[in-house]
Amino acid sequence: MNQQSSVFKATHGVMTEEVGVISGELELRTTCQEDGTLELAITYVGAAEWYTLPGKDYKLHDGRDHEVVHRLLVNVLERA
Description:
There is one protein chain. The longest helix is centred in the C-terminal third of the chain and has 14 residues, at about 65-80. A hairpin with a 6-residue loop joins β3 (about 40-45) and β4 (about 50). This protein has one helix at about 65-80; strands spanning about 1-15, 20-30, 40-45, 50. It has a 4-stranded antiparallel β-sheet, covered by helices on one side. The protein is built from 1 helix and 4 strands; from the N terminus they run ββββα. It is of the alpha+beta class.
């Protein structure tokens, strides 16, 4: 299991499964399992509760792509 985490500012907000759109200072956590399964979670900086990003069954063909995919997600969510 490999985990990446980044803090960013989402001015326009990010959609979550549980509570709808959240915005402000957020933290994205991506976890890549040994089989390439990718789990995406987001929270307000400093908060205990994590939320799920929409979609499911994310899987990388090569786990070595995890860091690149994580950075791409942060850049997209920050610009959205």
